[in-house]
Amino acid sequence: MSLSRDAFRMRHRLRVRWAEVDLQKIVFNGHYLMYLDTAMADYWRALALPYEATMHALGGDLFVKKSSLEYHASAYYDDQLEVGLRCERVGNSSMLFMGGVFRGEKLLVHGELVYVYANPATMTSQPVPESLRQILLGFEQGQSMTEAQVGGWAALREAAMAVRTAVFVQEQGIPLEHEMDALDADATHVVLRNRYAVPIGTARLLQPSPGVGQIGRMAVVRLMRGSHFGAELVQTLLDVARQRGDREVILHAQCTVQGFYERLGFQAEGAVFEEEGIDHIAMRRSL
Q1: pLDDT by residue (tens digit) across 231-262?
Q2: Contact criterion met (CB below 8 Å) for 170 and 222
Q3: CA–CA distance from 228 to each of 112, 235, 268, 286 (Å)?
Q4: From the CA atom positions of the chain, what is the Rg in Å?
Q5: What torsion, rounded to 10 degrees, do the Cα atoms 177, 183, 187, 190 define?
Q6: How crowded is residue 80: how many other Cβ atoms within 10 Å of its Cβ?
Q7: pLDDT of residue 3
Q8: What pairing do the DSSP bridges indicate for beta strands 10-15 and 278-286?
Q9: Nearest in space to 272 (alpha carbons), one of 259, 285, 253, 286
Q10: Which residue from 62, 91, 158, 224 has the least number of CB within 10 angstroms?
Q11: What is the distance between the alpha carbons of residues 107 and 85, in angstroms, rounded to a whole number?
Q12: How far apart are CA 41 and CA 97, in angstroms?
């Protein structure tokens, strides 16, 4: 059993807060279980599975049966830590997760979490669904948790609008009649789906002039943000633009996510402007 940092495909980063240290100025022992529990949310995000909706659809839920920790060294206030989690084994109705808390390459604490899959109404255990078992084992084997579908509006409208309505209309308050436009019909769309075929992200690619692509309507559902799914959408459309011969791609980024696009090679140009009451900046990238 490996407990090296690189043995964990999923690692959650955190910084020790003042409220988490004791009178000895080290992290209070009980907080390490909180660190593992916090990392578990990132684990489900890495699986591209919104936890509550997924469990509801499967008809079960997970309950902690056992948790144990072994301490090797202390973490201190303001330390930058990484918490690794991996699914070690899936039994008939239980799951064993291994966890490790690292400062750099140094293992500070490791632990085990045992969950039981059960009926939430009767609190009785039941078999782990085979589909969920395959997702867990597939992730640990390095498999992709998503599939990007590229196509026209007729084929992807329903899935794309489910995401766009949740993000732009319900979350950001943009009127539905403003969010939809006639350009959708001629655009190339991409929808990112998880292993249950649930759409978790979408974007579209226009061609406003020869050799120029324009990415727009880029959205990832709230619970799946902070992972790599947005970058996967953009890279998919960059590939489409490159394959059709575009020389550059432009977009109008909401200012709050300007840094995200800069990390993908886009550069801001011009002044900030407003669309639908939200500050935007024009950005461009050569292909």
Answers
A1: 999 999 999 999 999 999 999 999 999 999 99
A2: no
A3: 27, 11, 21, 22
A4: 22
A5: -10
A6: 12
A7: 83
A8: unpaired
A9: 253
A10: 158
A11: 13
A12: 13
Residue 253's nearest CA partner among 232, 243, 267 is: 267
d(CA 18, CA 21): 6
Domains plus CATH for the chain? 5-140 (3.10.129.10), 146-286 (3.40.630.30)
Cα(59)–Cα(119) distance, rounded to whole angstroms?
Answer: 7
**Residue 134 pLDDT > 70, yes or no?**
yes
Do 75 and 66 form a contact (C-beta atoms < 8 A)?
Answer: no
Contact (Cβ atoms closer than 8 angstroms) between residue 286 and residue 248: yes
Residue type, 69: L
Mean pLDDT calculated for residue range 149-176: 95
Give the separation between CA 176 and CA 123, rounded to whole angstroms: 41
Tokens 């953009």 correspond to: 234
Q: Token pair for residue 86?
A: 């991996």
Rounded-to-10 torsion of CA 39, 43, 48, 53: -70
Look up residue 76 and give its DSSP letter: B
**Closest by Cα among 140, 107, 111 to 5:** 107
User: What phi, psi does 100 have (nearest 5°)?
Assistant: -145, 140
In three-state secondary structure terms, 84 is strand
User: What is the DSSP annotation of 42-73?
Assistant: HHHHHTT--HHHHHHHHT-EEEEEEEEEEE-S
CB 269 within 8 A of CB 275: no
Instruction: List pLDDT tens digits, range 190-213.
Output: 999 999 999 999 999 999 999 999
